[in-house]
Amino acid sequence: xxxxxxxxxxxxxxxxxxxxxxxxxxxxxxxxxxxxxxxxxxxxxxxxxxxxxxxxxxxxxxxxxxxxxxxxxxxxxxxxxxxxxxxxxxxxxxx
Length: 95
Hints:
Elements: E1 15-16, H1 18-25, H2 29-37, E2 45-47, E3 50-54, H3 55-69, H4 82-94
Antiparallel strand pairs: 1-3, 2-3
């Protein structure tokens, strides 16, 4: 029997699990859960009995959030920006 992790698909799935979403965004699973809770990522849909995210919707959600969060490209990022804080935290932990 082939394990799920060994299955090679000819195309990426449109509906992804929390683990796959975390992988695609290069986040930890706990960060995905935290961002969903805080409204920084969309909530999952239930497909059958499983929570799944529609990947194109996630991309659109992030693009719209970024457009609203930073309407002026020349403005410096706010220290309150959770994405910036997370990036700084990650950079400092690897230094």
